[in-house]
Amino acid sequence: QVVNYAPFTLLPSAVPRALFEQAYAVQQDFNLLVDAISQNKEFLEQTLASTIKVDDFTAQLFRIYMQVLEEGLAQTVFLGINRSDYMFDCGLDGTAALKQIEINTIAASFGGLTSRTADVHGLVLKVLGKTKEASRLLPNNPAKGLALGIAKAWELYGSQSAVVMFLVEEIQRNIFDQRCVENELWNRDIRVIRRRFRDVFERGSLDGSRRLYIDNQEVAVVYYREGYVPQTYDQQNWEARLLLERSRAVKCPDIATQLAGTKKVQQELSRPGTLEKLLPDRPEAVARVRATFAGLYSLDEGEEGDKIAATAIADPERFVLKPQREGGGNNLYGEELRQVLQKIKDSPERTSYILMDKIKPQPALNYLLRAHSPLEVSECISELGIFGVYVRQGQEMVLNEAAGHLLRTKAIQHADGGVAAGVAVLDTPYLV
Ligand code: ADP
Ligand code: MG
């Protein structure tokens, strides 16, 4: 076992106050939107139809989704924890605009660790004699907000003796982030256990009313911190996933909500008219959500896809090519984007990707502090995430909140990658 400090910037980074507030203001809308998509079988079916023909991982998730629907849902309480990520796109006139990178609907991490970063940066500023600036750093406690959502779902499930199960990785690289949320639950006298897919396969079971049991304990809530990359799943782990999804336990997220977070869904949301259909009678929410969208393009077979593929091959610096994967390091940029797209442009494989306009933030100098790495000043860009939490019981939303923020900063030479990928580090916004 090795323990390292989590990587962080020496100094907080400047973030435009108006954009920060805009990101908070749209979070409840995104919660409603994700929840609406997760309940819309027709939309998910249509949107993912082309993707699941060529992407085995999405196809397998989709098969489980259909299988669970066919049997009928045993789950009646729904819990969503997501994180909507943004960059500040710098326009030609120098003004910055908030543009969504993606929304993470499964295993959105760093809510725990980042609940401590404002304290770290406050201390650094004080050491530097910047007491006034230190006092301006905002308090931020997503760990508490996420735990409140889990606790609400646990309560509505309605069994005092049932536990919350964190579904964790085989090799755990971010355990302390999870412990922050876990401890908030213990503080509320809610029992937490940690298990892997393998444990569920070996010792998990359902009773006659599809209550989930493991090691003689009933599970009220399954909080996934695992399960979003294909490498996780062998045959047994897929069986474990199916067992969990069939159960009455509150899954965070259920498989429909995981599918709602795919890049293909994100791209289809940007089509004119789609948001209006998903959020009828909420024109203001639709406008707030749409204002954060960057250009997103389908590579489905046909004229529209042919045209944008040709444009991207001619001018790859304008775009990012994204497959249906999570966790960082999967996107293609620049010359590599051009080569791959050139190779697959006439094959159905093309439809497993989407294209997105590349966001170009204004860089700033900072020091990135990482265990065992040399200290040097870097030109950096930041990505702001807002945590969203909601709980729905049947058709009634009983909780819908923004639960805090995360700022991650990386050196500009890395096109891709988050903190877990070893590229970005934890930061604190300093509003300007
Ligand atoms: P993942 O699911 O792997 O996190 P993302 O869509 O968040 O996928 O992309 C990973 C990283 O790539 C982001 O954190 C960001 O740094 C960079 N990135 C993604 N999309 C864009 C974009 N449109 N413009 C600029 N950078 C991007
Ligand atoms: Mg991301």
Automatic annotation (TrEMBL):
ATP binds at residues 102, 263, 322-331, 333, 356-359, 383, 410, 416. SUPFAM superfamilies: Glutathione synthetase ATP-binding domain-like, PreATP-grasp domain. Residues 162-260 form the Glutathione synthase substrate-binding domain. It catalyses: gamma-L-glutamyl-(2S)-2-aminobutanoate + glycine + ATP = ophthalmate + ADP + phosphate + H(+); gamma-L-glutamyl-L-cysteine + glycine + ATP = glutathione + ADP + phosphate + H(+). Its EC number is 6.3.2.3. The keyword Membrane does not apply. Pathway: Sulfur metabolism; glutathione biosynthesis; glutathione from L-cysteine and L-glutamate: step 2/2. Its cofactor is Mg(2+). Mg(2+) binds at E102, N104, E326. Substrate binds at residues 83, 106-109, 172-174, 178, 225-228, 408, 419-420. One of its GO terms (cellular component) is cytosol. Homodimer. Catalyzes the production of glutathione from gamma-glutamylcysteine and glycine in an ATP-dependent manner. Glutathione (gamma-glutamylcysteinylglycine, GSH) is the most abundant intracellular thiol in living aerobic cells and is required for numerous processes including the protection of cells against oxidative damage, amino acid transport, the detoxification of foreign compounds, the maintenance of protein sulfhydryl groups in a reduced state and acts as a cofactor for a number of enzymes. Participates in ophthalmate biosynthesis in hepatocytes. PANTHER family: GLUTATHIONE SYNTHETASE (PTHR11130:SF0). This is Glutathione synthetase. It comes from Piprites chloris.
